[in-house]
Amino acid sequence: MVLILSxxxxxxxxxxxxxxxxxxxxxxxxxxxxAAENVAPDANVTNLTxxxxxxxxxxxxxxxxxxxxxxxxxxxxxxxxxxxxxxAARGRPNAVDLLSGLDLLPGRDGRADPHVWLDPTRYAxxxxxxxxxxxxxAAADRTVAQLEALDRAFRRGLASCERRELVTSHAAFEYxxxxxxxxxxxxxxxxxxxxxxxxxxxxxxxxxxxxGATTVFYEPLVSRKLAETVAREAGxxxxxxxxxxxxxxxxxxxxxxxxxxxxxxxxxxRKALGCR
Length: 276
Ligand SMILES: [Zn+2]
Fold this sequence. Notes:
This protein is an alpha/beta fold. It is 46% helix and 11% strand. The chain has 12 helices and 8 strands. A 4-stranded parallel β-sheet has the order 2-1-3-4, with helices on both faces. A two-stranded parallel sheet has the order 5-6.
């Protein structure tokens, strides 16, 4: 009897049974995984988008579909950003569309623009909602305070600049532009893989010249060829501006987070826009 009891105590005290109790949270892509990890450090958070891939139109493996179906919570952005995940999550009581309830901007293709996480204030709402979904609303407070500080840094840093035109590869920065009074000119539409023609490139270069922009931004997860071609035609420079759709393996290895990437985005923007 005593032996059986102590065996039972050992079983409840071991790491295996604790991890069996950890909640399984499936997140569509990096910003949502980062939100979940921050508000629920004890949860088992899976990011569906592989490192170094970008999440637009991500296909799911059968195993990932299974993970979506068995998870305690599934965090995603609806509205056609990741249709395969939306299909797998449809009708599941634990799946939460974190775009719902946010003040959304129209995208270029008539759907809502999904890139809400690039505005720290809207991202704070996502963090809050994530904390509520995971049953611990107060756990969002620290991250929300950090996002408010980030918002203040952007406001101050971009208050007084020579230029306000933001020439980017894909239209990821509309919410950031909206929050800080910038004007985004995207070389492609909302999806980064669209291929413009030579005539388009000539037109884009003339648009860039007309705006007086001195920098064309490329992204770490997308080929920089288009940005370089247009910049060369327009006599502009290129620089990396990260839409945080995922971290590269280099960024992960260097310990980068949403906050460090956004701070370095701010530094890049200040330089490119000639901010004081
Ligand atoms: Zn995007």
